[in-house]
C-alpha cells in the first residue's frame, strides 16, 4: 500500500500518461503510417514492372469514355490520336531539371473522333540564365502519340492553380481544378508523354524501383512502442527496490534501548559490605559483644537501629586505635 501511494503522485502519473500515449501512438499511428507507405511503394513498383513489360494498347481498351481509371492500370502505356490545344496549356512549377529550376508543360489533347479531352504532361523544361522558360509549342493538327496513364493528384490548401503574370500556373496535377482553370472538360486522369513522341519536351524519368526506408522506419516505431514501456517498468522497479533497501538500512541503524543498572544500589551494597567487614574485624578483636551482633542484619540505611550500630562501631574503633 505504501508503494502504491508513492506512485500516485503527480509526477509519476504524468510519466504513466506519457508512456501509455507514446506507445499507443507508435502502434496505432506512426508504425502503420510508415508501413502503409512501404506497402504503397511496393504496389507502385509492381505496377511499374508490369507496365514496362507490357506493349502499348489503344486508350479505349484500358480507359473507356466516362469511366474512372482503374488504379491497377496506372503506368500502362496507351496509344491515341488527336490534336493538342496549346491555348489552354498550364505550367507546372517547382520542378527541377539538370539541377536547375524547371517547369512541366501540361497541354490538353482532344481525342480524334470523340468529345474526349485528356490532359497530357509533355515533359520538363529548365529555366534559362535569365530565369525565363522557353516552352516549345506542340505540333498542330492531328498526331498519334504514346503515353502512360497516370492518376490525378490532390492539391494542398493555398496551392490551388491560378493565373500569374498572364500564365496559367499550377503546383500539382489536380485534373478537376485544372479543368475549372482552363474551362475545358477533362477526363479524371492524365497522360505522361513517352520520350520521342510528337510534342515531347524533356524526359520525365520513371520512378526508381526501390522500397525506400519506410519499412525500417515502421519497424523502428514498433520497437520504440515496446522499449518505452519496458524502460518505464524497469525505472519503477529500480525505484521500489531502492526505497526498500533504504527502509531496511534505516531499521538496522536504529538504536536499541538497553536497561541501565540501578546506580543507587551500588553505594548501598558497598556500605553494607563495609559494615560487615568492620563487624568481622571487631569480632576478631573481641570488641563486639553478642548484644552488638544482635543488630538487625536486614536493616536498611536510613533505619534508626542501623545508624546506632554504626555509631557504636565508630566509637569503639576510636577508643581502640585512637582518633
UniProtKB/TrEMBL annotation:
Listed GO CC annotations: plasma membrane
Stored InterPro entries: Surf1/Shy1, Surf1/Surf4
One Pfam assignment: SURF1
Stretch list, region Disordered: 246-294
Main localization (coarse): membrane
KW Transferase (keyword) present: no
Record-annotated membrane-spanning stretches: 12-35, 214-237
Keyword annotations of the record: Cell membrane, Membrane, Transmembrane, Transmembrane helix
Comp. bias regions, Basic and acidic residues: 257-282
Keyword Signal appears in the UniProt entry: no
Domain of life: Bacteria
Membrane topology qualifier: Multi-pass membrane protein
Subcellular location: Cell membrane; Membrane
Family indicated by similarity: Belongs to the SURF1 family.
Protein name: SURF1-like protein
Organism for this UniProt entry: Gordonia humi
Taxonomic lineage: Bacteria, Bacillati, Actinomycetota, Actinomycetes, Mycobacteriales
